[in-house]
């Protein structure tokens, strides 16, 4: 075309979590039985939505108002309910106008980074959830600025590395945290959270904290919400119902703005996010309307607790199986429903393979791994998929130089999950020995 129409950051928009599905579906057609451990969708993995929850949604759908526009910020009674929830924690206090609804947190992430000045950067975790790191990098047209999560220390943020990334990069205006974390499953203790807040205060930054998994914490871990530790630092917390209820198809998430009036520039920035939402009119009405009724239902807490207990059992099964494999750095997952495993540095190479009986599948995998730029862990993921049908995501696709993989803890059949973990462990041993 006579004019370049491609956005400066188009090359930074990648999402290997779903890209690997294309490979898996191709191999399925060639006869491979696939175990989808790549996408964090509890419903797709067989989660049964309880009847009482379905009835609440059905009753709400009978109301004419559920078919109309909502206010741009979101349903007022729902925002009042959520603001009261924040205020009961005893930290920062907010009102309903400090809450803004989006069509899922993907929409919120796009707006939050998209409305930043192009040369203003948010330092993201590494590994980092792809939607955050890609959106931040795309807005700037450059690779992410990242701080290290330490695989030898429970995947906790390295605060010294975080400070260096801030101190020596004056373009950094904000810090991203994901707590509990995706992709690592780490749950940050209070002292880590307060350390990040202290850095934001010291360098006059704002904080973004993705808390979509905040109530999915187990193995005795404790954490705090950002609202409880933020003090007077400007911040945005991100929450939603896709994972907790779970209702990912609702596309319903929201942000909570803390200390929005403490800094004129931050206040103007938040206003620009609201204005960009006004252009779209509003977010989906039905899930907003029914949200308080679901969260206050007498069976809700027990339902969530049963799911959390199941993830805790799965986390320990996976940890106890994979920690016995030489060559891996393995941490127990304590929140959300993901597990990230890193290979010891230098242990992977481009000669390792796994046996694949199906000739067509083997030829296809060999074509994939021969593509220029294929990382060593992506090579492993392709061979794992072709040999065992287990579909995981290469860790290097999460804005990190570490080589490894991310898997989920969502399989409901415990014996089937034990078999998947055992097969995965044995495949890794064979791959590293090849």
Number of helices: 14
Mean pLDDT score: 92
Q: In the CATH hierarchy, what is the architecture of the largest domain at level 2? A: 3-Layer(aba) Sandwich
Terminal CA distance reads 49 Å
- Global Rg: 22 Å
What is the beta-strand fraction?
5-15%
CATH topology category name of the largest domain: Aspartate Aminotransferase, domain 2
What is the count of β-strands? 14
Q: Give start-end ranges of low-pLDDT stretches.
A: none
Q: What is the helix content?
A: 40-55%
Q: What is the approximate shape?
A: globular
Q: CATH homologous superfamily of the largest domain, by name? A: Type I PLP-dependent aspartate aminotransferase-like (Major domain)
Q: What is the structural class?
A: alpha/beta
> What would CATH call the class of the largest domain?
Alpha Beta
The tally of domains stands at: 2
Spatial order of strands in the largest sheet? 2-9-8-7-6-3-4-5
What is the helix/strand order? HEHHEHEHEEHEHEHEEHHHEEHHEEEH
The major beta sheet can be summarized as:
8 strands, mixed
Give your account of this protein's structure.
- InterPro entries: Ala_Aminotransferase, Aminotransferase_I/II_large, PyrdxlP-dep_Trfase, PyrdxlP-dep_Trfase_major, PyrdxlP-dep_Trfase_small.
- With 434 residues, the chain is α/β, with parallel strands linked by helices.
- The chain folds into two domains: 10-47 and 301-433, Alpha-Beta Complex (Aspartate Aminotransferase, domain 1); 67-295, Type I PLP-dependent aspartate aminotransferase-like (Major domain) (Aspartate Aminotransferase, domain 2, 3-Layer(aba) Sandwich).
- The protein has 14 helices and 14 strands.
- It has helices at residues 16-29, 51-61, 76-88, 104-114, 130-140, 159-167, 190-203, 226-229, 264-279, 285-295, 300-322, 359-369, 376-388, 414-433; strands at 35-36, 99-102, 121-126, 146-150, 156-157, 172-178, 206-210, 235-240, 253-258, 328-330, 338-343, 390-391, 393-394, 404-408.
- The strands form three sheets. An eight-stranded mixed beta sheet has the order 2-9-8-7-6-3-4-5, sandwiched between helices.
- Helix 3 packs across helix 10 (285-295).
- The radius of gyration is 22 Å and the shape is globular.
- The termini are far apart.
């Amino acid at each position: 075309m006579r004019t370049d129409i491609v956005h400066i950051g188009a090359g930074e928009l990648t999402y290997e979590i779903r890209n690997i599905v294309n490979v898996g579906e191709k191999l399925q057609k060639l006869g491979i039985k696939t175990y989808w451990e790549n996408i964090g969708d509890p419903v797709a993995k067989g989660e049964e939505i309880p009847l009482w929850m379905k009835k609440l949604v059905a009753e709400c759908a009978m109301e004419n108002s559920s078919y109309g526009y909502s206010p741009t910020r979101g349903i007022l009674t729902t925002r009042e309910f959520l603001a009261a929830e924040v205020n009961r924690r005893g930290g920062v206090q907010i009102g309903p106008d400090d809450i803004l609804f989006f069509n899922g947190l993907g929409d919120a992430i796009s707006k939050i980074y998209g409305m930043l000045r192009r040369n203003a950067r948010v330092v993201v975790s590494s590994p980092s959830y792809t939607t955050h790191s890609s959106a931040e990098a795309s807005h700037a047209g450059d690779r992410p600025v990242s701080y290290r999560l330490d695989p030898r220390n429970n995947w906790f943020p390295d605060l010294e590395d975080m400070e260096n990334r801030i101190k020596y990069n004056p373009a950094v205006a904000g810090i991203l945290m994901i707590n509990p974390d995706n992709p690592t499953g780490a749950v940050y203790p209070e002292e880590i959270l307060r350390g990040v807040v202290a850095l934001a205060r010291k360098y006059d930054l704002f904080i973004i904290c993705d808390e979509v998994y905040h109530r999915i914490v187990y193995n005795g871990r404790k954490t705090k919400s950002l609202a409880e530790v933020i003090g007077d630092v400007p911040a945005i917390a991100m929450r939603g119902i896709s994972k907790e209820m779970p209702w990912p198809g609702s596309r319903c998430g929201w942000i909570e703005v803390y200390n929005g009036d403490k800094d004129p520039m931050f206040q103007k920035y938040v206003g620009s996010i609201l204005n960009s939402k006004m252009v779209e009119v509003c977010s989906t009405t039905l899930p907003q309307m029914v949200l308080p009724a679901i969260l206050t239902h007498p069976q809700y807490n027990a339902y969530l607790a049963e799911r959390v207990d199941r993830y805790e059992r799965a986390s320990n099964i996976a940890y106890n199986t994979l920690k016995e494999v030489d060559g891996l750095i393995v941490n127990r997952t304590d929140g959300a429903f993901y597990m990230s495993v890193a290979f010891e540095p230098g242990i992977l190479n481009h000669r390792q393979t796994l046996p694949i009986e199906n000739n067509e599948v083997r030829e296809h995998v060999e074509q994939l791994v021969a593509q220029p730029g294929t990382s060593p862990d992506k090579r492993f993921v392709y061979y794992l998929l072709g040999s065992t049908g287990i579909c995981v995501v290469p860790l290097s696709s999460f804005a990190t130089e570490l080589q490894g993989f991310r898997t989920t803890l969502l399989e409901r059949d415990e014996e089937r999950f034990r078999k998947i973990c055992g097969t995965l462990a044995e495949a890794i041993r064979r791959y590293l020995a090849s």
